[in-house]
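Worked example 2:
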Amino acid sequence: MAIAKAERLMNLALCLMNTRRPLSKKELRDSIEAYREASAAGSEEAFNRMFERDKDDLRELGLVIDIDESALDGEVGYVARRDRNRLPEIALDAEEAAALSLAARVWQQARLAGAASGALQKLRAAGVPFEESAAPEHTALEPRIPAREAAFEPLLLAARDRRPVAFDYRKAGAVLPEQRSVEPWALECWHGHWYVAGWDRDRKDARVFRLSRITGKVRTRAGRFTADVPDHVDVRENVARFAGEGATATARIRLRRGAAFPLRAKAVATEPLDADWDELEIPYGYGLGAWLAEFGADVVVLGPDDLRADVVTRLRAVAGLDAALSENTPEHAPQGAQR
């Protein structure tokens, strides 16, 4: 179905760009086989719906389609004038070309690697000067961005195509996952984890989700985005806010010696207590409780009280989940399977 739609869009774009006068909807229907089949199998209404969707898709892809209501004796005509749809000449210097070449080699996923390779071939055909000596076999460093989460590729494609998605998401410390309906904007890697930022339709707010906490499959939803996409989506800034960066308040914690080095890196003050524990003062921002709970028994929150209560609640939720899993494990299961 995806191939059929892509072929239909391509045929429509070619018809609109290779005509000297606006074409009516009837002329386009008679010229494109998929439209003729839709009209014959269903009705004129089915063709009209398909045509309107395709026209919107082409415009979203950047094709400028003009409407002329006077050229066809009262019928509406459509045309994509070449002078309004011509891309500017591509001009890259050697450093910019090298950066693109490097970026194209970063992705290791098969579908992305094919798209990157095709993009480089088009740029070469346009005369962009790529250094052949920069081939992967001659480089000292091989750049890689690992994306092990199964949710990475469907979310990346959904963000590219502006398609809403739904997935089950387990918050830090939560017993069970919750379904989220999201309009994904952008993905970014921060401190070794991938995150997606987007519009949470149920909560009617911009949110950030860690891909490793998405359970099950990412499901694409019909329709388009309902919220405006910001001109600049800083995923890292939003994730950093959840980790306490940029916070004006501070929290006091007791931290086991030799553990939780990311917390030690954030500390504004550290005081040794005994051979096993240190006391740290760290920035306190929204979402810090979820981060502290990840370190389990290595962290004891001393204050403020609301942060301590948050972490205790999260740890109790995790303990409750472990207990529930143990109770549901068959008695004849192997010893190691009960955890």
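The CA atoms of residues 175 and 320 lie 7 Å apart. The first strand starts at residue 23 and ends at 24.
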